[in-house]
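Below is one such record:
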Amino acid sequence: MAPARPSSQDRLTGDVARAVASWLAFVLALGLAGVALAAARGAGASGAVLDAVPAVVVLLVTVPLVLMAHGRARWPSVLALRTPVLALAGAAVGLTAAGLVLLADHLAGGAAGFTVTGVDGWLLVRWLVVTLLLAAALEAVPEELALRGGVFGGLRGHLPGWLAGLVTTAAFVLAPAAAIWATAQLGEWFGVAVPPATFAPGGQDPVAYAVLLASFGVVLLLVRAVVGSVWACVGYHLAFLVVNRLLLGDPAVTGLALRTGEGAELLVMAYLALTAAVLGVVVVRRRGGRR
């Protein structure tokens, strides 16, 4: 006798459980990374080693747990792990949007608009290589696999796309706060003194940071919807981080001195809005063509 096929309720329960497991894997990884960073700092580590510790922990915890939760057969479909080269397409979308906004800022502001005021070529190249490696391991790969892959992919077969996207975006915004709690609990369990954490890094306003996360999360979902691969989300994520850190970073660290006419924070929101508008039009046109 052939085994009974799972009911729709069983499939829903399983997919929701895998989506939740994906989010929990990422939060657990962030919590462990916070404890590992505090322990490394307490042991006297500094510089590149201190930067690498949380990145390695998040990558090595999140990726295997999410992949195991979904099973190999679901990697291409649910997790959208298709065609890694599409990461270049995602990066191109992000860099093009940022470039257009910066060009507009330059033209609108004239001599007071966006301008490159100094370049240290060797320092810039070194910074780009290190930043891309660390950002891919700490943020882009694990976040996209867990959230735009595991959470969204697990829910979209049972919920309308907009609702699955809303839940995924909420999970993205809540992840930092959950990670703070996880770090505190794990630090207590392991006997490691962890420094007080904040929801928003660098003293940013928590509300503004939450709005930025939500906007970024929506854009990443649109990237997945249009390109059809989580690798494109990884590419866009990396482009976004690199551009932001160049705009907001210290030229002595990045090797690139910039001036912006309207303020870097406004420019960041502007190129997120431009990306969302263009990709949103593509999604709407595609849906219209199917009718």
Remarks:
- The chain has one domain: 8-289.
